[in-house]
Amino acid sequence: MAKATLERLAADPAIRHIMQKHQFSVGVLTELAPHEQPHLLGLNVNAGQAIKLRIYTDRYDGFRNYKEIRRVLCHELTHNVWGDHDNNFKELNSQLNREVAEYERAAIEGAHSLSGQPSSSGGYSGSPSELEGEAQVHVLGGSGASVSSLQRESPEDRRRRVLEATMNRLRKEEEEIEHSCGTGRTA
C-alpha cells in the first residue's frame, strides 16, 4: 500500500502540473518509515535528490490521509528552491498548494488536465458542494451558532465562513508540517 501511495503521488495530475510548471525534479520519491526520524513527516535531501514522505501512521496500524501526504510533498518540493522556513519558503509553499487546489477545481469543472484533455475527476471524487458541506460541519460543530441563524445566513456569508474555516485548518496543518519537517530546520 505504501508503494501504491507513492505511485499515486508520482502520477497525481495536480502534482505533475506544479512540477512541470515550476520545473521541479525529484530523483527518488520514497517512504520515510515511522521508526526513521519519528518526529518528521517529510524530508527533502539535496534539493530534490530524494524526497522521503511518512506514509504509515506512527504505530504502523494504517496509512496517513492521501491529501495530507500530498501537502507534505508540496512542502518538501518547496525545499527544492528554499532551504529555510522563511517568508520566501512560506510564500512558494502556499502558492504550490493553491495551484494544486486550483488545478483540481478546474479538473472537476472539466476545464483541463495535464495532457490538455478534459478531465472529470482530477483525483478528487467529491463535488465542490461536498467540500463546502465538510467545512460547514466543522464550523457548525464548534461555532455555537443556532440552526435558525445559520439558515438565515446569506450565501456570501456562508462562503466567507467556509473560507475562513478552511484557511484556519490549512494554516494549522501547515504549522504541523513545518514543525515535522527535517529539511531547513532553523534553531
Automatic annotation (TrEMBL):
Where are the annotated segments for Disordered? 110-131, 142-161
Q: Which PROSITE patterns match?
A: WLM
Superkingdom of origin organism = Eukaryota
Low complexity biased stretches? 113-130
Q: Where are the transmembrane segments?
A: none
- Which stretches make up the WLM domain? 1-171
**Which GO MF term does the entry hold, naming one?**
proteasome binding
Matches recorded under PANTHER family: DNA-DEPENDENT METALLOPROTEASE WSS1 HOMOLOG 2, UBIQUITIN AND WLM DOMAIN-CONTAINING METALLOPROTEASE SPCC1442.07C
Name by which UniProt lists this protein? WLM domain-containing protein
Q: Which organism is it from?
A: Candolleomyces aberdarensis
